[in-house]
Amino acid sequence: MSIRVGIFGYGNLGRGIESAIRQNDDMELVAFFTRRDPSTLITKTSGVPVYSANDIEKYKNDIDVLILCGGSATDLPVQTPALAQHFCVVDSFDTHARIPEHLASVDAAARKGEKTALISCGWDPGMFSLNRLYAGAILPDGRDYTFWGRGVSQGHSDAIRRIAGVVDARQYTIPVESALEAVRAGKNPELTTREKHTRECFVVAEEGADLDRIEREIKEMPNYFADYDTTVHFISMEELKRDHSGIPHGGSVIRSGKTGIDGENSHVIEYSLKLDSNPEFTASVIVAYARAVVRLYREGNYGCKTVLDVPPVYLSQKSRDELVKTLL
Amino acid sequence: MSIRVGIFGYGNLGRGIESAIRQNDDMELVAFFTRRDPSTLITKTSGVPVYSANDIEKYKNDIDVLILCGGSATDLPVQTPALAQHFCVVDSFDTHARIPEHLASVDAAARKGEKTALISCGWDPGMFSLNRLYAGAILPDGRDYTFWGRGVSQGHSDAIRRIAGVVDARQYTIPVESALEAVRAGKNPELTTREKHTRECFVVAEEGADLDRIEREIKEMPNYFADYDTTVHFISMEELKRDHSGIPHGGSVIRSGKTGIDGENSHVIEYSLKLDSNPEFTASVIVAYARAVVRLYREGNYGCKTVLDVPPVYLSQKSRDELVKTLL
C-alpha cells in the first residue's frame, strides 16, 4: 500500500518535496495545497491536483501524510497545530528557541485527533540534532561543535536586501578553516563567534548608490554581521545570476571526547554534509521521516514526535530483516 | 534508580566497559564475571566483586544489564543466547554474515525469558550501520562507501603472528587518500578492494629469520593481504612496544546521492570517526545502548534489538524534554 502524500505550500521546500517523492517508490504525491489561487500554481507534476488551502479538510481521508512547507516565523506555529488534528503531518519548524512550545501545541492537537506529527525535521534542526544526541550519549566527557557552511544564509541575504540602495544580495556563511582543524584534531578550543565563521556578501547595488555606506551598514549590522569578519563584494546582476543562483549549504557536527581510566584516550566523531541544494536535501530528510510518521500512526503511536524519538528502521523503505542483513 | 551493570569477560573490551561506566552517573558497576579463576583477575575497580562465570545465574536479580565482552568466533554465538534468557544483555557480535542467525537465536531466548537484548553494538557493526541506514533513507538515489582506518586490525596482526619466524606484529589498515577524496567530491567512483585500502605491517622477526620469506608470505596471504598493496617493515621489539602499543582505529561512512527533478543536485553525507582506542570507543557505544536496553526492558519491550531499532532518546542520560530543548 503506497503512502499518499500531500504538499502544503509550494516554495523552494515544496518543490524539493515534489522531486524527493519521485525517488521513493512507496510514495505517491496526491495533492498540492496553496493559499494562492490554485489555478495560478504551475507545478512540475502533471496530473496531480492543486487545491485551495481553505478546502483542505475535505481531503482528510485521501492523504496519509501532509508535509507542511511554510515558514517558521508565522506560518508553522499556526498551521501545524491546526492541521495536526486532522492529518498526520511533518514540518521543518526551525526557530530553535521556540521548539518546546511548538512541540507542546502540536502534541495536544495530534493527540486530540489521534494523529501522528513530527516537527523540526531537516538537517538543523534534524540530522545535526540527532548527531549531537548520539555523539553526546557515546562520549559524555566531551564537547560539541557545530559549524555551518559554506552555504547561503537566506536570513542574512534578506537582511542585506533591506538596506537602501541594494537591489539584490547573496550571503555565504563560511566556517573558519583553522578552527575546524583544531576541533577535528581534538584540541577542544574555546571559540568565539568570530573565530568560528566568517560571512561573505555578494551585493548588487543601485546605479550611483553609495557603496561605502552600504558596505558599512552591512558590516555594522547588529546580530547579523557585527560579530563576524565580513567581506563585501559588489557585483552586477548578471554575475549574481550566473555565479550565485544555487542554494548550497552544509556543515559539520563534531564532538571530541575522552575515555579511559584517566581520560588518556581521545576520540573525534564528525557528521558532515555538503549540499548542492539546501531545500532539496531538507526535503529528502522530511520525506524519509514522513514514511516513519505513517508507520507510527498505523501502529497507533499518536502525538508529536521529533527526529530524536523515531527508531531508525522506520525511515527506510526496506524491511528490518533486509536492513539487518545488508547494513548491520 | 541507577542501572546495575555486570561485565562478562575481562579483555580489552571488558576494561573499556569498566572505564566507560565511570563516565555515566546513572550507572553502577556491580560485578565482573570470568571463566578464569576469579582470584587471579586484577581489575581497576576496587570493591567490585569478581565471580566465576559458572555461578552467574545466582546474580540474576542483582544485575539490570550484562555486557558480554567475549569474541565473535566462538564465545558470543553460545554465550549471548544462553544468557539472554536470564539477563538483559548487550554484545558486540561482529561477524557480519552471521548476524541474522545470531539475532534469531538471541531473540528466541530473550522472548522466552522476557528479557531485552541488543546485539552487534559498537561502531562497525553499530554506528556505521546506523549511518548507512540514515544516509540511504535520505538519499535513495545514491551510493555508500565505507572506509576503515588508519587503524590496527587485530585479525590481520594475528595472521602475521602465525607465520614461522615472527615474534610479534602490528597491522594497520589505511584508506587510500585519493579514493577518499574522489568519494568526498561526489564522484561516485567504482573502486576495487586494492583501490580503497592499503595495509602496512610492522613485524618483529626472530633473530636470523629469513626476512624475505616472511615478507613474501605476508604479501601473498590470500584474503588477508593478497588483494591489497601491502608494505612490510621489520622493527625491533623495543620499537614495536614504543611506537605501536596503542589500538587506534576509525574510518568513514560516506554516501553521495542526487536530488532534483532531473537529479541535477549532488549531496555528500559523511560520518567519520578518529579513535585513539578502538575497544574503549566500542565500549562507550555499548554502554549508551545498555542504558537503552534497560529502558526498553522496563517498558516491557522484550526480544533482541539492534542499533537500527532503538529510538535515539533512549541512549541519553538526559530527559527527552531536555534533549529537545538543548539539542534539537
Describe this structure in words.
Two copies of one chain form a homodimer. Chain A is an alpha/beta fold. In chain A, 34% of the residues lie in helices and 26% in strands. The first copy, chain A, contains eleven helices and 14 strands. Chain A has helices spanning 12-22, 75-84, 99-113, 127-138, 154-161, 177-184, 193-196, 211-219, 237-243, 278-298, 320-326, and strands at 3-8, 27-34, 50-52, 65-68, 89-90, 116-118, 142-148, 151-152, 166-175, 197-205, 229-234, 249-259, 265-275, 303-305. The first copy, chain A, has a seven-stranded parallel beta sheet with strand order 3-2-1-4-5-6-14, sandwiched between helices. Chain A has a four-stranded mixed beta sheet with strand order 8-9-10-11. Chain A has a three-stranded antiparallel beta sheet with strand order 7-12-13, sandwiched between helices. In chain A, strand 12 and strand 13 form a beta hairpin. In chain A, helix 1 (12-22) crosses helix 10 and helix 2 packs parallel to helix 3. Chain A starts with a strand and ends with a helix. The model of chain A has no long low-confidence stretch (mean pLDDT 96). Chains A and B meet through helix 1, helix 3, helix 4, strand 13 and helix 10 of A and helix 1, helix 3, helix 4, strand 13 and helix 10 of B. Strand 13 (265-275) of chain A pairs antiparallel with strand 13 of chain B, so a sheet runs across the interface.
